[in-house]
Amino acid sequence: QVHLVESGGGLVQPGGSLNLSCAGSGFTFSMYDMRWYRQAPGKERELVAQISTGGTNTNYADSVKGRFTISRDNANKTVYLQMNSLNVGDTAKYYCAAARWPREYRGQGTQVTVSS
Fold first, then answer.
1. Which residues make Cβ contacts (< 8 Å) with residue 14, sequence separation at least 6?
2. Do residues 24 and 97 make contact, with C-beta atoms less than 8 angstroms apart?
3. Mean of the per-residue pLDDT values for the chain?
4. DSSP-derived secondary structure letter, 27
5. Residue range 68-97, pLDDT digits in tens
6. Residue 8 CA: distances (Å) to CA of 83, 100, 105
7. 3-state class of 95 per DSSP?
8. The pLDDT of residue 19
9. What three-state secondary structure class fits 108?
10. Dist CA 1 CA 114 (whole Å)
11. Where would I find the H helices in 8-48?
């Protein structure tokens, strides 16, 4: 059974940083592209960042470029999202996902709230 468990969310002040983690199990982690999505209340889900199986290729939403960094550790089956210079617009529930066409598995998410 596939499990993706996110952690590291919380409340942070504008300008602060958080590092999200997502541990995967129940599938061959190294064979899946990994993604971070976010969704704020009343808004559509947004693909924030993606990393290829070997970690060599990454893509980011324009809204987070230069502030967020996605990385992965295949040996420990974990993907990370380092988030810097956070602003109130980053407030959302963040989900990690494992993607290998035609499947995508998604975790339960972790809440990130940016507020003073």
1. 86, 87, 88, 114, 115, 116
2. no
3. 97
4. S
5. 999 999 999 999 999 999 999 999 999 999
6. 11, 25, 20
7. strand
8. 98
9. coil
10. 33
11. none
Q: pLDDT tens, 45-65?
A: 999 999 999 999 999 999 999
Asked if residues 78 and 24 have their Cβ atoms less than 8 Å apart, the reply is yes
Closest by Cα among 20, 12, 19 to 107:
20
Q: What is the pLDDT of residue 34?
A: 98
Q: How far is CA 40 from CA 4, 33, 37, 85, 114, in A?
A: 20, 23, 10, 18, 12
Distance between CA 16 and CA 112 in Å, rounded?
12
Half-sphere exposure (CA, 13 Å, Cβ side) for 65?
5
> Tokens in use for 96?
């990690």
Output DSSP code: residue 29: G
Please list, in sequence order, all residues whose beta carbon lies within 8 angstroms of the beta carbon of residue 86, skipping any fewer than 6 positions away.
12, 14, 15, 16, 17, 18, 67, 112, 114
